[in-house]
Amino acid sequence: MKAVTADNLSKTYESGKRALDDVSLSLNQGEIFGFLGPNGSGKTTTVKLLNGMLTPSGGECSVFGVNPAVSPETVHGMSGVITEHAQMYDNLTGFQNLTFFASLFGIDAGEAAQRARSLLEQIDLAEAGNRKLATYSTGMRQRLSLARAMIHRPRILFLDEPTSGLDPESARQANGMIRDLARQDGTTVFLCTHQLRYAEEICTYYGLVDSGTLLASGDIESLRAGLSSGLTVTLRTDRPPVGVEHGKLPDGRYSVQVASAEEIPRLVRRIVEAGIKLYHVSAQRPTLEEIYFALIEQKSTGGAA
Amino acid sequence: MNKQQLALIKKDVRGITSNKRLFSVLLIIPLFMAVVLPTIFLLTITFTPLESGDLQDLLAILPVDLPNSDLRVALTGALLNKIVPLFFLMIPIMSASVMAASSFVGEKEKRTLETLLYCPLSLKQIYRAKILASFALSMFVSLLSFAAMLIVVEAELWITMRNWFLPAIEWLLIILLVAPALSLIAITLIVRGSAKAQTVEESQQRSVFLILPILMLIVGQFMGVLLLNAWILLGLGAAFAAIAVVLVRTSAGGYTYEKILK
Ligand SMILES: Nc1ncnc2c1ncn2[C@@H]1O[C@H](COP(=O)(O)OP(=O)(O)O)[C@@H](O)[C@H]1O
Ligand SMILES: [Mg+2]
User: Fold this and answer.
1) How far apart are CA A161 and CA A139, in angstroms?
2) Residue A161 CA, closest ligand 1 atom number
3) What is the helix (H) or strand (E) element at residue A23, kind and residue range?
4) Min CA distance, B25 vs chain A (Å)?
5) What was the pLDDT predicted at A304?
6) What is the CATH number of domain A4-224?
7) Are the beta carbons of B3 and A85 separated by less than 8 Å?
8) Which residues of A touch B19 (CB under 8 A)?
9) Which residues are bridge partners to A68 per DSSP?
10) How much distance in Å is there from the Cα of A19 to the middle of ligand 1?
11) What residues in A contact B257, CB-CB < 8 Å?
């Protein structure tokens, strides 16, 4: 069974805003799925549709075979959700918050206390767990939200911008915790973020969105394969490499786009045969960010054609 | 009510008792209506000369058997059974409103509502649990206030007049019928407004719609327009209860996650 599916899923808000436009997705169990795109691209809308908080205007979706528009409670029972607006109680301690939410999921008191303590340990809040939430920093709150979402051992975690508002160090740390916790229980993760760089560190599968449409989905290899330029070759030479299309980097080096590694020897021979002195060659595979912007470019030129 | 709903009810009640500001509202209104006000009435009757015009005016309004031995005792009884019950009704209305506003709108204001909605309870179950939490607290405060009033009034009567007070059937109707019905109406009014209201204060103001009629009843009593008796209370109580049942039945209908989170 697929963890998540979406078939031509669309959402138009009452205001007339089309936030999601014919998105189709299919996600295997156990993946850490990065749903990536800038603010306003429809990520939160998708999470809400998948949890039945919104009803689709078109198409449909499922979470472990259950349609959230039909039985949202069943989906809630197997998912843990973190969103910006899903906060916890300031007048309760971290521990009390966790045990309260555990009880909402029908976990009995003894087991809830045990689970809460072990999660607090894993998110470095073992001591802070006895303090009221009112005294927590943003980072501590985010981590506690992660524990809250995991309290009932969900089959899938929906994390909407779990690292927003965190400094880079805390964001890395939080991502590490997400990965470790998810691996422990084989939990599928649906991670929404606009921070592509962090996502690349933990995700195994991607969906790239822009203004409500899905640009591409797949693992990083298949995303790269979908691009016309698969590699960026950086050259240090004594003068510009004539005869090849190139860009100039700020440090004086030149960059050339090639489709695959097979083209590198040919490129080097051409430069050397032209009498240019070649001091250094390196090849980088495009980062997620580069793939994203390349896809945006393709979309806009494709749209113009 | 299942175990999950009970957990939600417990959390809601604890949420209000641990909030100093809300808790003091829950304390002050009952204190005033059930303890201070009857005491003022009692002292006034004790220390006003019998011939004074004010007492004679009261006598004209309230049904007192004159041949009865002690006029002051009779007057006190009449005040406590006819006038104080109306003031007392402010207690369930205010407690229910304060609690419901904090339970429904407070969660929205503090952004904890969405977290609740992601739990495996249906929207209806969540609403039912929250309505019950407000209702239980309101009735608890009302009963406690009544007990406090009895203790204080009996002690004062004994000290000042060597006598004691027997609550009339009106009180039974107030406690068992009118107060629960008004609590439920107050709660459902707040719930209905909760989708629109953005702050707890804004939402609490809705209880004015219930307090105004009660105030008019009180004024009516003093002007002698309408005299409270068990039949009137029974009629009013039955009407309120009918309204309450309809409001509760329809309170969770028509709501969707989308409407609530807006
Ligand atoms: N309740 C709403 N009513 C109208 N428009 C909305 C609503 N929520 C979101 N939008 C709009 O829908 C688009 C997608 O929003 P969202 O799903 O929140 O994007 P993301 O999470 O990727 O930042 C945005 O243009 C946003 O302004
Ligand atoms: Mg968002």
Assistant:
1) 13
2) 21
3) strand A18-27
4) 18
5) 42
6) 3.40.50.300
7) no
8) 91
9) none
10) 6
11) 52-54, 72
**Are A85 and B111 in contact (CB < 8 Å)?**
yes
- A134 vs B contacts (CB less than 8 Å): none
- Estimate to the nearest angstrom the gap between the alpha carbon of A128 and the chain centroid: 28
How confident is the model at residue A248, as a pLDDT?
87
Q: Which residues of chain A have pLDDT under 50?
A: 304-305
Report the domain count for chain B: 1
Distances (CA, A) of A296 to A23, A209, A227, B102: 16, 9, 11, 46
From chain B, the residues in CB contact with A77 under 8 A are 120
Q: What is the pLDDT of residue A129?
A: 96
Tell me what pLDDT residue A102 has: 97
Task: Provide the 10 A C-beta neighbour count for residue A6.
Answer: 23
- Smallest CA–CA separation between A148 and chain B, in Å? 10
Measured in angstroms, how far is the CA atom of residue A16 from the centroid of ligand 1? 11
How is residue A246 annotated by DSSP? -
- pLDDT digit string, tens, across residues A265-296: 999 999 999 889 999 999 888 888 888 888 88
CB contact under 8 A, B110 and A90: yes
**Identity of the residue in B115, B120, B122 whose CB atom sits nearest the CB atom of A88:** B115
Give the CATH architecture of domain A231-284: 2-Layer Sandwich (3.30)
Determine the structural domain holding residue B37 and report its residue range: 3-261
- State the Cα–Cα distance between residues B114 and B106, nearest whole angstrom: 12
Pocket perturbation via mutation, ligand 1, pick of A9, A15, A17, A54 by most ligand atoms within 8 A of CB = A17
- Positive or negative, the CA dihedral A263, A268, A271, A272 is negative
| Rounded average pLDDT per 10-residue block, chain B, 262 residues | 93 90 89 94 84 72 63 83 90 94 91 95 92 96 96 92 87 94 93 81 79 81 74 91 89 79 78
Among B83, B109, B81, B92, smallest CA distance to B29 is for B92
ipTM of the complex in this document: 0.87
CB under 6 Å to ligand 1: residues?
A 13, 15, 17, 19, 37, 39-45
pLDDT in the model for residue B65: 61
Residue type, B251: S
Domain residue limits, chain A: 4-224, 231-284
